[in-house]
Write the structure tokens for this entry.
Amino acid sequence: MAKAASTRTARTSPATRREAALRREVCEVMRHLYDRGHGAPGDGNVSVRLSPTHLLCTPTMVHKGRLVPSQIVKLRASDGVPVSAKQHASSEVRLHLALYAAHPAVGAVVHAHSPYTVALSVAGISLDQPVVPEAVLAFGGGCPLVPYAMPTTVDVPAGVLEHAKDSLAFVLERHGPVALGSDLADALARLEVIEHTSKITLLALSVGTARALPAGEVIRLRALLTVPELLAQRPTR
Ligand SMILES: [Zn+2]
């Protein structure tokens, strides 16, 4: 039995092993987001670059906390068409495709409907006025509040693309955070910084005001790690 398994492994190409590993990792990211309360069962979507021509993306209309690798959709990066006609990628895949096209160095995109971040956006409060230094360091640029657009429509990527070159973190008004990263772990960590910062901001507002960092300090912090430098980093796993 062990010999048969090792023979199978030896015959598997590096590309096949990479795809299998990324499929598992996409499932783990979605399970993590669901377990951490980043949305209802159907909420959120994740994608990752598989190759220069193809992406892997979460499917639509399924429980995101219970995904298995075979459900992850392989699609063309150029137009989002799935390799298998039987599979359907996230209804928000247009947003992912636009971000990869705009940011060649981006390796993964993570989007959730995280409650603290959505709540702040409903109140019209932007994270673009940073309150803690960690957020500035994680986002590279700001974290713009992108005006509301109906989810799944072309208006969503159109709004985000205005800011895509300058930041790795966005908040879609009344919808949720979007984080870009060099890989899945990097994008997930950045999305969690968005939600954590939103939680801190809401707690501060509940007892007083959420005082923004001085503008000069924000400029100093942003100079420490630019967007290209953040994408060139390889996070520790
Ligand atoms: Zn969404």
